[in-house]
Design brief:
With about 220 residues, the chain is mostly helical. The chain contains 11 helices and 4 strands. Helix 2 packs antiparallel against helix 6. The termini are far apart.
């Protein structure tokens, strides 16, 4: 029986892409993340309070995700599920819409408040801290779980060639209404055409996409 490769061995096949406007992109990340935290602080505080008062468990949910070049980092979210959601995951694996990513419509583990947070993408806002830390960018492919990366083909590993983002083409093109294969192609299209102006365009398109809750559940 062939040995199962480790994440480090899989990461060796990821072609890390140099970003020609890296300094400008990082400056944009710091500016947008800082301004967003200040402007959205009432929403952040309200979300934290609602999570604390309506369900048992920590307010902030931490999860290991995979970033550029296969590097693992701790990703932050407002907890939108019951406290033992990870332990229950195997029981509903068969409900997932895709074999690679774990996407379930009407996931029974989601709390009532968590459903609202997810529809408005408020649960993802703590990742602004990941942006400030340098783990993520404002714009870039969404960071996957290690177990998902282990199922990637070499073609799909290409989406890990740049720093992951808080929003992306997938986010503004329908989110969960888009299958994983198309999702990957959108990420690779972004990577092939990424620029400062394209990042600004995606950021501006994210606002109406979030407000209309397109593809969110």
């Amino acid at each position: 029986m062939a040995a199962v490769p480790t994440l480090e061995e899989v990461a060796a096949h990821i072609p890390v892409r140099p970003v020609g406007y890296a300094v400008a992109k990082r400056a944009l990340d710091l500016l947008v993340a800082t301004v967003a935290i200040v402007l959205l602080s009432p929403i952040l505080l309200l979300a934290a309070l609602l999570v604390r008062l309506t369900s048992r468990g920590a307010v902030i949910y931490t999860q290991t995700r995979v970033g550029v070049g296969g590097r693992e980092f701790t990703c932050y979210k407002f907890r939108s599920m019951c406290a033992n959601a990870d332990a229950l995951r195997s029981r509903i694996r068969h409900l997932s819409l895709d074999d690679t990513t774990f996407k379930v419509v009407n996931d029974p583990r989601i709390t009532p408040v968590g459903r609202w947070l997810r529809r408005m993408s408020i649960d993802e806002l703590p990742q602004l801290l990941n942006v400030l830390r340098g783990d993520m960018s404002i714009v870039g492919p969404r960071p996957p779980l290690p177990e998902e990366v282990m199922k990637y083909t070499r073609h799909q590993l290409g989406r890990l060639s740049v720093k992951p983002g808080l929003t992306c083409l997938w986010q503004v093109s329908g989110r969960s209404h888009i299958g994983f294969a198309h999702w990957v192609e959108l990420d690779l299209l972004y990577i092939d055409t990424m620029s400062f102006t394209r990042d600004l365009s995606i950021i501006l398109r994210t606002v109406p996409a979030v407000l209309t809750c397109r593809g969110a559940y």
